[in-house]
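Researcher: Hi, I'm a grad student and pretty new to this. My advisor asked me to get structures for two proteins we've been looking at. I'm not sure of the right format, so I'll just paste the first sequence and hope you can take it from there.
Model: That works fine. Here's the first sequence with its C-alpha cells right after it:
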Amino acid sequence: MLKLIFKFRLFFIIITTIILLIFFHQIKLLLPLENFFQKIFLPIQLKTYQIANKIREKTFFLSSKEKIIQENKKLKQEIQNLIVKKGQIEELSQENEILRKELNFIKKNNLPFVISQIIGGKNDLGFQTLIINKGKNDGLIEGLPVITQGFLIGKIIKVDKYTAQILPITENHSLIAAVIQNYPKTNGLVKGEYNLSLIMELIPQDIKIQVGDLVITSGLENNIPRGLVVGQIEKIINSSEELFQKAQINSPISFKSLNFLTVLLPSK
C-alpha cells in the first residue's frame, strides 16, 4: 500500500514538474537557464554532429564504392561480350569472303565441287592429315584435289562414308605434279618440307626461271586438273653439280587457320 502511494506521489511530482517547466518555458522564465545549458552542450552537440556526419559520409562512400565496383564489373562483362560478338562477326565476314572468292573461281572454271569444313586432324603413319565432314556419300574418292581461294592446299588420301582425310601439300609425304607457268618444259614435283614449306624439284638446269614465277598443277595426275595455283617461287636453289635445279615455293595460304575447303570432283 505504501509503495503504491509512493509511486503515485512520484508520478504526480513528475507530471507537475513537466507542466511547470513547460509553463516557465512559455513565459521565458527559464530562458537564462536554457541559454546556459545550451552554451555548455553546444560543443558536445557540434562534435556529435560531426561524428554522425563522418559516419554518414563513410557509409555513403562505401555504398557508392561497392556500387561503382559492381557497375565496372558489369561494364567489363558487356565490353567482353561486345568483343566476342565483334570477333564472331569478323570471322563470319572473312569466311563469307573466302567462300565468295571460292565460288567465283569454281564458276569461272566450270568445275564440279563439294564445299566441306574441317572437323579435326589426325597424326597417322608419321604425318598430319586434316579431317573434313564430307565422304563417299558426297562423291569423294581418293586423289581428289582440295583448294581454298583457288589455291591447292592438299589432296584426299582416305575416304570413309561421311568423312575424308586430306594430306596437306606442306607435309613430307606430299607429292604434287606441277609446272612453272609459261615454262611448258618445267614439269616437276612439288614436295612438302616438315609441314613448313614447299620445294619444287626436277626443274631442268637450262631453263631460266625467276623469283615470282607462278607454280601450277601440271594436269599429269588423275583427277587433278591443270592450272590449280600452288604458289610462287621465292627462292631458286641451283648447283652446277646437280642435274636439276630446285625452287622454294611460297603459298599465301595460312595452313594453320584453314576452315572451309573445296573438294574438286572428277569432271563428268
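Researcher: Oh nice, that was easy. Here's the second one.
Model: And its structure:
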Amino acid sequence: MVRGDITTQRVDAIVNAANTSLLGGGGVDGAIHRAGGPAILEECRLLGGCGVGEAKATTAGRLPAQWVIHTVGPVWRGGGEGERELLRSAHVASLELARELGAASVAFPAISCGVYGFPVGEAAPIALDAARESDVELIRFVLFGDDAYDAFAAAAG
C-alpha cells in the first residue's frame, strides 16, 4: 500500500475505477484519461462499455504502465443490494484479466470509495482478500489521502 497518484505507478497494469460507459469521468477515471491521453479513450469507445463487477483492458497511452484495466465498481446503496459481492467481482475480474494479459504487477485505487460512496473501511478488506487469493506477482494499492490509506492499513492488520 502506498499513498499517491496511480497515474505515476511503474507497473504492468493500472486499474481504473471507471463508469459503465468507459468514456471518462471524474476522480481516478478522469485522472487516468487526462494523464494517459486520447489513445485510452479511443480504445474505450470500441469496447461497448463495461458492466458492474466486470473488467476490460486498453492501452495505457502516455502512462508508465503497459495497460489500463477498466473496472466498474458498485454504487453504495446501504449494502443490501449486493454491493460487497460486486466490489469483490470487480477486483477478481481485474486480476484475472491482468493474468490473461501477462501482467506481473498491478496497481489498484480504492474502487467505488469516491463518488460511488462505498465506505472505505468496508471496501478495504474485500479488496485485500481478492488480492491475497490472486497469483499476480505484485499487487499495489495506491491510495489517495490518509483516510483511504489508514483504512487499508487497518484491514491489512
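Researcher: Is there anything I should tell my advisor about the second?
Model: You could mention this: The CA atoms of residues 92 and 133 lie 9 Å apart.
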